[in-house]
């Protein structure tokens, strides 16, 4: 068991950071559109009119009242607004809605007023001017079914009282000529893109994050808060029941409830994901959130070191324990499982926090988190069921002791190293230059040396017991740490050995260095970071283009650059045959004021284009119907697609074949 713990301690950080590789943001062609709006106007006399808005909903979908629900997490209330800048009309009363009693909503688990099938809203107005005005009415709303909510939308109607006409949409939105020109400049009209529909593959991602959570759960089992509970709990069920069969059922049920509890913890994130998907999908490039994760991981690390404990209020666990004792039966077993989750939080909390950080910094969002939580809960639950089925196995469990604290402190060092990954994300996106590649690796080396010193007994922490002879397992982990530190050291140099392929994507890119690399592109390649300049160079040199949609915080982008592009054959083709245009979709550097504009989305609504990342992210989705990174497109210098775009392609031969296919197509076209 101890040797298994040693192995897991080095598997978990790799899996933890692996969660950030999943960046599948391709758009889902199955777009839900379960509501449609209609508007009309009814004339009562020359000055009094009634505006009528009708919402038609598909079966199973709800539109919510204008009155906000008095609960912590509430649905978005429907809101009506009317443009009256010229003050040529006034509202008579408020917008009315169907008079319906609150109904229990399964999504929000509360009594909420919502409408199904059809809902009619009316607003009376009084015209104050001689000429009848145009009224712009906007409806802000969100709809839900019994499982999810869709992102909020705005529906707009322009109502002409003079002509009794209603125009739907944002057709009269005031977009300046500058906005139109800059929007038009984003559309490069790629020829041939219609042949290739975007693909979405999530199965492998979900399986990987499930396995990540499972390994995290196994680690949690080996902590002082959980491990001693296994024999105690199993013995309670098997010996305390009236018969062995009843004890087995109770123990299995106890494990099942542990699994369910951790799965339920992810449900609030599904609500956030439905209301605003970007809350979760943009965490990997959000500077503030990355800094928050950095601080949280530092706090977790020192908690594992034993300087303090992160615990939930003791009153919570006491209440759950009382409930378990007084209720009994299935409900009592559920409260016992909940009590375990609460009292073990000081050990499981940091691991869950790591899982949260890892899964939410990928674009799978709440669903990936649920898969991770499911894996975590399953790993915690399995021992209680298995040892109940095979009680003789309990004799093989090692006794609790100082080795449990060693596991906990080792996890603290791992948390400390992971913290700087999040700080590095923020640094890369903002170009602060604080954590250049060599500085980042230097910090990891110091963390590794600290872990070595602890494992070899040179330093101690508050909860360490009396000094004893170093165990074989502890010595073995220390030796592995030593070789890991040795592996990192060449990364501090400006030599060919600095490319640490096994860690590609974890440290900052090679060109983000304290050394002068000649270019700001991967591997010393020449790369244009602007589409127009790159296209001009391609035409001047009569070369095809490789359009590289990338990101500063994109782990798979770094893996491609350092593991695939570094292949001599691939490098030569990129360097000699193509014009490389690398567009960073997460670059938070502001565009010059004259280059900022408002982008009118095809379905209505405005997206402010204020940063370099805003511009290139919109450029990608507008022209290629894809928003995942890395994403590679081969074009000729007349903007014709040479072959099918690809994403993350770790196979060097496959990627080289793809490059050569595009090059052959370009040369074939040039001969015609």
From TrEMBL:
Domain Thiol:disulfide interchange protein DsbD N-terminal: 47-159
Pfam families per the UniProt record, alphabetical: DsbD_N, DsbD_TM, Thioredoxin_7
Molecular function per GO: protein-disulfide reductase activity
Limits of the Cytochrome C biogenesis protein transmembrane domain: 210-424
Annotated transmembrane regions: 206-227, 248-267, 287-308, 329-352, 372-390, 402-420, 440-461, 473-492
Localization per Swiss-Prot or TrEMBL: Membrane
Main location: membrane
Membrane disposition: Multi-pass membrane protein
Coiled-coil residue spans: none
Signal peptide: 1-19
Key words of the record: Cytochrome c-type biogenesis, Membrane, Signal, Transmembrane, Transmembrane helix
Annotated Gene3D superfamilies: Glutaredoxin, Thiol:disulfide interchange protein DsbD, N-terminal domain
Domain of life: Bacteria
Biological process terms in GO annotation: cell redox homeostasis; cytochrome complex assembly
GO CC annotation: membrane
Record-linked InterPro entries: Cyt_c_assmbl_TM_dom, DsbDN, DsbDN_sf, Thioredoxin-like_sf
Listed PANTHER family: THIOL:DISULFIDE INTERCHANGE PROTEIN DSBD (PTHR32234:SF0)
Protein name: Thiol:disulfide interchange protein DsbD
